[in-house]
Specification:
This protein is mostly helical. 64% of the residues lie in helices and 5% in strands.
């Protein structure tokens, strides 16, 4: 069998109910890298074109020929991301649900089943996200006269006042989201504004001061935050190995390992501490810097650098820091 014959085979019938026969026909066929690319393109085209039977046929064929590489490539290309298809999730749900139903016939591993279940859970949220986006676009059109300048001023105020979010707040409240997430949401609103209203010089002529000071646009910013949160979940599941499932009526994302999640949280914490340091520095004159280890090291090097730091050649060439043996240090 060659790829042309495979293409005709995938168009001749719906193979979901006759997987064993399909296995026999595909037996011994080795799919080249270029052919895998064509297979993914066919799946994508059939998903976009609404041909769910053909899309499922090609997906099943890919799983039977090389499960691991096909799933990894689909993750990499985002073929099961609803956002790729304007949040139209019905065909994607059809493909994933049927693959899960016949997972034993297809010989799917626990990892692949877990991934498809996570994708299916995310897809169930897509219609709600689509409705939020439709409402958001309506509000953007209503407020288009002052919206752009209002939102840009809002960003400046958030950082000027060093706004802090509340991680324990309900995700349906704007207080739950950090200023970085709010800025990303505002960027998304500006993106939609450009598509549906068009940005020109007149967008920066008017601003409603009260709406900025009272953050009256928080309702549509919250809409955008929710949409961006969904996009983020798609990335976590497709590229970072997270699982997605329902627990107590809530959709929950879980990292593959506890250490992975800790590493991500550590990055957020480090970024926040760095932000506080920048704010502290900018709020004080250079001659009135707060005490810090960094400042201590700078002063120590400026005054005694040549005496403290020396180059040694034995037993191995290296630089060493030699602290003077003064009483305060010897006591320590």
């Amino acid at each position: 069998m060659n790829f042309e014959e495979l293409s005709r085979l995938m168009s001749s019938s719906f193979w979901l109910n006759d997987i064993e026969k399909l296995k026999g026909k595909l037996s011994g066929y080795h799919m080249e890298k270029k052919e895998r690319g064509t297979l993914f393109k066919n799946i994508d085209n059939f998903l976009v074109g609404g041909k769910k039977g053909r899309a499922l046929n090609w997906f099943i064929a890919g799983l039977l020929l090389n499960k691991g590489k096909v799933i990894k490539a689909m993750q990499r290309n985002g073929l099961f991301r609803a956002s790729k298809y304007n949040m139209e999730s019905r065909i994607l749900e059809f493909v994933t649900s049927n693959a899960l139903q016949y997972r034993e016939n297809l010989g799917l591993s626990k990892e692949i089943v877990s991934y498809l279940k996570s994708i299916h859970t995310l897809l169930s949220l897509a219609p709600n996200v689509k409705r939020i986006e439709i409402d958001l676009i309506k509000e953007i059109k209503k407020r288009k006269k002052t919206l752009i300048k209002d939102l840009l001023a809002t960003i400046e105020i958030l950082f000027m006042r060093n706004y802090e979010n509340n991680n324990e707040a309900d995700p349906s409240e704007i207080l739950y989201y950090s200023k970085e997430q709010i800025c990303e949401a505002i960027s998304y609103i500006v993106f939609l504004y450009q598509i549906f209203c068009g940005i020109n010089i007149s967008c920066f002529n008017n601003m409603h001061e009260d709406s900025v000071l009272k953050f009256e646009h928080s309702d549509i910013v919250l809409m955008a935050c929710k949409i961006r949160k969904y996009y983020e979940a798609e990335i976590f599941v497709n590229y970072l190995g997270y699982t997605c499932k329902y627990e107590n009526g809530c959709c929950v994302l879980e990292a593959a390992t506890e250490n992975y999640e800790k590493a991500i949280q550590h990055g957020y914490i480090y970024h926040q501490l760095h932000t506080y340091n920048v704010i502290a520095r900018s709020s004080l004159k250079r001659s009135d810097k707060p005490a810090s280890l960094e400042r201590l090291a700078e002063d120590l090097y400026e005054r005694h650098g040549r005496d403290l730091i020396k180059r040694k050649k034995e037993p191995k060439e290296r630089f060493v820091l030699e602290l003077p043996m003064v009483e305060p240090l010897t006591k320590i």
